[in-house]
């Protein structure tokens, strides 16, 4: 009886190990491979130019505002109260416009970044799925983030996915 229990325990342990081994797993650093993709590099260059344009526009608007503030402060004693109130309102409107411009720039930049990044992410995901299917992996884990599950003993698909993407 004792021998039968030991045999059953060994068989159950062996079956559990076999079931785990049947689940082939691999990992890849998605962030690393994405930043090396030519499309990503081109997209980053495009975004850099766009950000420079937005930054220039914003700085010009702020400089114009600051010049008016300085001018109006210098002339405040020489013009009447009514004119000072009018100028004060004009400056408040300019401040609101600057804040709106800043929000619009942030929204537009975020939208443009998403338009550039999404197709790259889709292409990478498709390549990862294709390589995983070709190699027979059931699970592929992203090892790029601190909260991602990393399978240390699983093979790294980085080189295969990079080859699949053609770079």
Question: What's the helix and strand layout?
Answer:
Layout lengths: L1 H21 L2 E4 L1 H7 L1 H38 L5 H55 L3 E4 L15 H8 L2
Helix pairs in contact: 3-4, 4-5
What does this structure look like?
The protein is mainly alpha-helical and 167 residues long. It has one domain. 77% of the residues lie in helices and 5% in strands. It has a two-stranded parallel ribbon with strand order 1-2. The chain is rod-shaped and about 80 Å long. The N and C termini lie far apart (62 Å). The relative contact order is 0.18.
Distance between the termini: 62 Å
Task: Give the overall average pLDDT.
Answer: 84
Number of strands: 2
Overall helicity? over 70%
Instruction: List low-pLDDT spans.
Output: 3-11, 149-153
Order of strands, main sheet, comes to 1-2
Biggest pleated sheet: 2 strands, parallel
- Any idea how many domains? 1
Overall SS class: mainly alpha
Content of β-strand: under 5%
Key features of this structure:
167 residues; mainly alpha; two-stranded parallel sheet; disordered N terminus
Brief synopsis:
This protein has 167 residues and is mainly alpha-helical. 77% of the residues lie in helices and 5% in strands. The protein has one domain.
